[in-house]
Amino acid sequence: MGAGVGPEQLVMSHHKVLNALDRHLALIGFMGAGKTTLAEEVAARIGRRAIDADRLLEGRAQISIGTFFAQRGETEFRVAEAALARDTFRQSPPAVIALGGGAVKTPEVRSTLRERALTVLVDVDVDVAWSRAKDTDRPLAQDEQLFRRLYDERRPLYSDVADAVADDADGVVLAAAGIRYELGGLERLGELVPGDGPVALVTDSRVMGIHGARAQTALGDRLRSTHDLPAGEAAKQLHVVERLWSELRLDRGGTIVALGGGALTDAAGLAAALYLRGIPWVSVPTTLVGQVDAGIGGKTAIDIPQGKNLVGAFHWPARVVIDEALLTTLPERERRQGEAERIKTELLAGRALDVRGAAAYKATLCLRDPRDQGVRQWLNLGHTFAHALEAAADFDLPHGEAVALGLLAALRLSGRDTKRVVAALDPKPVRVDRERAWQALLRDKKRSGDAINLVLLGDGGPYVEARPADEVRSALDRLIAS
Ligand SMILES: NC(=O)c1ccc[n+]([C@@H]2O[C@H](COP(=O)([O-])OP(=O)(O)OC[C@H]3O[C@@H](n4cnc5c(N)ncnc54)[C@H](O)[C@@H]3O)[C@@H](O)[C@H]2O)c1
Ligand SMILES: [Zn+2]
């Protein structure tokens, strides 16, 4: 197969976009599913406008949906609804749009959704839906039998047009970012990799021995080749990526599936970003760090002698598959690394988060700020200190331990309680050279004049603030054993 790009290959490379990064996020589903409320909640989280198509239509027609139905009939209503959908989905910037329960009956609405939106089915049980809808003035919720029949009729339509299914705000955010949180997802990789083109499986040598065979089986006929990279940080080297490129036999219709920890997904994602000027990739993180952090958000990178992550690209994965079952084989030492990032995420969110919730929180910030120019920097909470300690320890300090200490410093400078971090991570001061740590912190990029920019936590959530150098230095000193 040649690597030239003929018209045929352009067609093959036309992968459907499975995230809402630059598109509208449409919520569909039955009456009483909670689409309106979810649209508002998700829009607030990802910094977009929420639009409720039914309310908009009522505003335009100057009558309630119930009256519209009664006076002008369903057919005319569907025509008005489709016209409004057409207009709304043509507008930018991308919004979160809740559609009426029957909108997808109209073929034109379905094609508008396919072209212009990432569509999420808000799933609801028929009994729950009925209990919510029965005492409203919704025209199609006046008779229980009719309601239940409609529910059965519409289900196949919803599934046909939906790119993903969700039943809460985290689920919608995950879907918007192209993330599938699914226990046993590894076994379904063949279906979860978008499209039907060939796949190159890229994994690290250790993960290959543990989960590789199951991934290969799951990919079935689509598997074109398997490549194992050195385990851990050693994967993030240009010569490793270069060898991978030389081995790949994919055209632009192909997809790289990256199965491994953050180091592997960083390297394989970068390989995908540059191969043939960019082919799709799927991230399947196998570490806790990967599932709550590194596997999400499209930052890819390798290391050079001048520093970690200095060469990279933004290349959003076509899909992320988070399968917590993969973590059962993770050594305790590695799990602790991820715990530090999970606790960091809890502090940022201001509430307890499991793996799914932490992944959704990171996805939220990345959707709001895909290019890392604003709120995404919040994810650096504690990291200015962590990086300084790691450098002073010649990187002989696990990142998670450094982050745990860094979180202490950030909380202290924020005037907040450190109980949660102490209880969950129990950070102990490290023995490194104070002056080296301080010099490393000063070399870090987050400086403005004599003050140092830090992510801190307030009652209203995270914020970035410049703090005087001497305050920062004493916070750093407290993390170092004398
Ligand atoms: N791109 C991003 O946004 C981002 C964010 C955070 C971190 N990172 C990067 O992630 C890297 C750290 O990732 P990490 O902590 O996942 O480490 P890692 O990828 O180095 O993996 C750690 C070790 O765990 C092994 N392993 C992985 N999955 C396993 C499993 N399921 N069972 C048993 N062993 C398993 C690996 O073989 C490796 O030896 C760093 O390079 C960091 O720069 C990137
Ligand atoms: Zn980190």
SSE blueprint and pairings:
Blueprint (H helix, E strand, L loop, with lengths): L6 H6 L11 E5 L6 H12 L3 E3 H9 L3 H26 L5 E3 L8 H10 E6 L3 H8 L10 H18 L2 E3 L2 H8 L2 E3 L7 H4 L6 E6 H15 L3 E7 L8 H10 L7 E6 L1 H13 L6 E5 L2 H7 L4 E6 L2 E8 L4 E4 L9 H18 L5 H14 L14 H10 L6 H15 L5 H7 L8 H10 L3 E2 L2 E8 L2 E8 H9 L5
Parallel strand pairs: 1-3, 1-4, 2-3, 4-5, 6-13, 7-8, 7-9, 9-10, 10-13
Antiparallel strand pairs: 11-12, 14-15, 15-16
Helix pairs in contact: 2-8, 3-4, 4-5, 8-15, 11-12, 12-13, 13-14, 13-15, 14-15, 14-17, 14-18, 16-17, 16-19, 17-20
The chain binds nicotinamide-adenine-dinucleotide and zinc ion (ZN).
The site of zinc ion has 4 residues, from helix 17.
Give the distance, in angstroms, between the N- and C-terminal Cα atoms.
63 Å
Q: Which bin fits the share of residues in helices?
A: 40-55%
Structural class: alpha/beta
In percent, how much strand structure appears in the residues? 15-25%
Shape: globular
The order of strands across the largest sheet is 6-13-10-9-7-8
Q: Low-confidence spans: pLDDT under 50, at least 5 residues?
A: 1-14
The count of DSSP E runs of length 2 or more, i.e. the number of strands, is 16
Q: If you average the pLDDT, what whole number results?
A: 94
- Number of distinct helices: 20
Rg = 25 Å
Bound ligands = nicotinamide-adenine-dinucleotide, zinc ion
Main beta sheet strand tally, sense and closure: 6 strands, parallel
